[in-house]
Write a structure and sequence with these properties.
There is one protein chain. By secondary structure, this protein is of the alpha/beta class. It has 10 helices and 12 strands. The chain has helices spanning about 20-35, 55-65, 90-105, 115-120, 180, 195-205, 220-235, 265-270, 270-280, 295-300, and strands at about 5-10, 40, 75, 105-110, 155-160, 165-170, 175-180, 185-190, 210-215, 240-245, 245, 310-315. Helix 6 packs across helix 7. The longest helix is centred in the N-terminal third of the chain and has 15 residues, at about 20-35. The structure holds glutamic acid. Glutamic acid binds near residues 13, 45, 122, 215 and 219. Glutamic acid binds near residues 11 and 13.
Length: about 325
């Protein structure tokens, strides 16, 4: 399968209106691929049926379009040949890959419940990650193929063994992670059948031909888990850029509940060019917060300008 040399993606969870942090991620990802003639795809990460709504996906598309951040592939219209592009409709595909891992002996059934509850959410380091104790890990894990029936009504956990993952993050440089120490065997499918973020994102990035991923700093550890899975499934891992989170004055991360940073407020208060100027200045891409255009930002985009910080201060949005 041949595709563009550079393909990036934006993979929002449609659980609310986007905020400034989401838009900053989308902008950096778009600029990175477009400055090198690449393609950009939009994937809807609506794995969590309780929190995801079609309406929010529609708003994501509307807000990206308002800013001029147009995607070449994906979205609700499923443009492209690697669809569907909404994770809620990709269960059959995830099943095939999970089955492949089962026949390799890489997974085992688990009846521990607490982690099951957390597993479909994109994990965020600040949430206080729990390292799995290995309570359900069978003798010979990693080698023994366990019968399909044993997984019924149980969650499916991936055996990580003593895998050490080394990779270079585009912003934060060399990383070295011991999966056993930092996360332990992790869940790929919950007991109720829901797919976990880690499996879905790897299968999707692989099948959609994604070559680079730009997303929040809080997912840095997830990159190690995902690189491990790419390796098991025989796909090359994409390049990763983990981006500074955007915080308020008190140093708390912006979230979908912050009304000032919400796109509905931002669109009332600013024009697209004004908002681009504010975000570009915050990200080190423009020397002043004056209005700017995507064309201007593209012309002199470089990752070297983006601060290597875990958090950047949100500009005044009042
Ligand atoms: N869907 C995740 C989120 O909105 C992002 C996952 C990713 O980029 O890998 O937080």
């Amino acid at each position: 399968m041949s595709g563009p040399a550079v393909k990036g993606r934006f993979a929002p969870s449609p659980t609310g209106r986007m905020h400034l942090g989401n838009v900053a991620t989308a902008l950096l990802s778009w600029l990175s691929v477009k400055s090198r003639g690449g393609e950009w795809l939009l994937r809807i990460e609506d794995l969590d049926p309780q929190r995801s709504r079609l309406e929010w996906s529609q708003w994501i598309e509307d807000d990206l379009s308002w800013l001029g951040l147009m995607w070449d592939e994906g979205g609700l219209a499923d443009r492209g040949s690697a669809g569907p592009y909404s994770q809620s409709r990709r269960g059959d595909i995830y099943s095939q890959y999970l089955e492949r891992l089962r026949t390799m002996g890489a997974v085992y059934p688990c009846c521990c419940r607490r982690r099951d509850i957390l597993a479909t959410q994109a994990p965020h380091q600040t949430d206080g990650r729990v390292v799995y104790s290995g309570r359900c890990r069978p003798e010979g894990a990693g080698h023994v193929v366990i019968d399909e029936k044993a997984f019924q009504g149980r969650s499916t956990r991936l055996f990580v063994g003593d895998a050490g993952i080394a990779f270079s993050d585009g912003l934060f440089g060399a990383q070295s992670v011991s999966l056993a120490r930092e996360c332990g065997d992790f869940i790929l499918r919950r007991a109720d059948g829901a797919w976990a973020y880690q499996l879905a994102v790897v299968v999707d990035d692989a099948l959609m031909g994604v070559t680079e991923v730009a997303r929040g700093y809080d997912l840095l550890l997830s990159a190690a888990q995902q690189i491990y899975l790419f390796g098991l499934l025989g796909y090359p891992a994409p390049a990763y850029y983990h981006l500074p989170l955007i915080g308020n004055e008190a140093g708390q991360r912006l979230c979908k509940r912050d009304p000032q940073a919400d796109m509905s407020h931002l669109r009332e208060r600013f024009t697209p060019d004004q908002l681009l100027g504010l975000i570009a200045n915050m990200l080190g891409l423009a020397p002043t917060p004056d209005a700017t255009t995507l064309e201007r930002l593209l012309a002199d985009f470089s990752w070297d300008k983006v601060p290597r910080a875990e958090m950047l201060r949100c500009p005044d949005l009042s």
